[in-house]
Prior knowledge:
CATH architecture of the largest domain: 3-Layer(aba) Sandwich
Bound molecules: 4'-deoxy-4'-aminopyridoxal-5'-phosphate
Distance between the termini: 53 Å
Number of domains: 2
CATH class of the largest domain: Alpha Beta
CATH superfamily of the largest domain: Type I PLP-dependent aspartate aminotransferase-like (Major domain)
Shape: globular
Order of helices and strands: HEHHEHEHEHEHEEEHHHEEHEEEH
Structural class: alpha/beta
Largest sheet: 7 strands, mixed
Low-confidence stretches: none
Amino acid sequence: MNIYNRALKTVTPYVAGKPIEELARESGLSAKQIIKLASNENPLGPSPMAVRAIEKQLAGINRYPDSNYYELKKKVATKLNLGIESLVFGNGSDELIDCVIKGFSEPGNEVLSAKSTFLEYEIIAKVNNRKFKAIGLKRLRYDLDSIAKAITKKTRLVFIANPNNPTGTYVTKNEAEKFLKKIPSEVVVVFDEAYNEFVDTGSFPDTLKYVKNYNVIILRTFSKIYGLAGLRIGFAVTRPEFAEVLNTVRQPFNVNSLAAAAAQAAIDDYEFVKKTQELIWQEKEFLYKKFIEIGIKFIPSAANFILIEVAPSSEAFFAKMLKLGIIVRGMSAYGLKDYIRLTIGTHDENLAFLEGLKTIKEKK
Ligand code: PMP
């Protein structure tokens, strides 16, 4: 007799970026001495407008949130130029991945995605007793031709992280459109666009345009550009019938009222978004230049993080960085054992990382 879900035997639990407090406890360093460049968070902090909205909302936390999130929906719908019935909010886009899998597939069905992509697709699919099939990346990019060929009668969902975490590479408009034309009518394609606001290239697909004519769900988040990772709020954009499915699956009060108020304010904080974009784009160029000077191999990224080659062992490199009080992310769990993923920080944080890199290279 099994007391637990046997599917869990094949699941490796998600390991998040190491928390600052944990390293402080283990190392004796103070939290202020530690630099975390491991979870693709916003180095500028949260949107100031979101912080003010939370302060205002605090006195109302005796009440349940509006389970339809009407005001928030109206704000986001206006910004994206779509109807409110196309939106569903979640406790981070993580929760929406679970809702999508529960709403659009059954036990035994297949969920398709790539190897070396966001690990939650596989974990959540398997926990829900779905089969997970991962297609290898091609030159560290999603190989949509091979993914389309791998679709079987059992396939119900395809997850595409765009830009991809952890590689920072992206699927172009042409590739996405060619792919959608090949997809059978019982398959839903999810474009997970957690890093969409950091993209500055014209060939990136405007997926909002696909919602009407294809089985497409887009996932976005307030965790990255808006700096609200700790609050847990993301959303799905899809056609109204699909949104209804997600609304049936989700818990009625899945987003807390502080998160909803913060997101509603943050969406109007254009100044903060612009400031964050400018910092990330400027620092990305700075880091690329330095990596070329030092002779470090990296993968050009469309997001706010960079995959860097540190062969022979990313975990050894991670440990050496930790000793210097710098938290990055080793990539062996993603099948990329020669790489680490660096979240782009403030200029001072990036300088500290480069200094650490030099120290590690000299000690070799
Ligand atoms: N999708 C991708 C591709 C991500 O990288 C992340 C965050 N690491 C998420 C989804 C989850 O984000 P959220 O904080 O909204 O749950």
